[in-house]
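Could someone model 2'-deoxyguanosine-5'-diphosphate with this protein?
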Amino acid sequence: VNKRRQRTFAMVKPDAVSKVGEIVTFIQDSGFEITQMKMVKLDQEQAKIFYEEHLGRSFYRDLVEYIASGPVVAMELVGNDSIANWRKLLGPTDSEVARLEVPDSLRAKFGTNNQKNAAHGSDSTFSALRELEFFFPSEDNKKQQNIRLVTPKE
Ligand code: DGI
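Reply:
Sure, complex below.
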């Protein structure tokens, strides 16, 4: 196994933002370094773009509405094989399944169900780059203003 230091993208979803303190501790205790972090509220258009790989899936609309329903906490994580290891720490997609099958996983501990599952993790190097750029744009992308991030609405 190639134990390289790698970046990945993590996001605490609206259902778990109230538990972000515990989640940060859990992430750090699991060996990841949090190198960037911010709380933002996505609007519907931004949520659609973020989840565009799921366009056409039955749950796409619900997912977009849910992610835009409240603030999320976006993070850049660094660690050895962090993309795979962060996905492993998350556990199964459905928090109810996670509690049965991987009770130590983050989704088992902090999530509710198939939609309110506490957190997101990139599933490939391509996704990680895209998702990190989405939330933490480099200076060039900031100038282009293609992806505009907003602060929480009143
Ligand atoms: O990579 P994952 O987050 O584990 O799962 P995924 O890429 O298959 O789906 C992305 C998100 O979409 C997932 O975290 C929660 C939501 N989702 C997946 N399957 C369903 C779903 N939401 C609903 N309501 N129903 C589903 O069947």
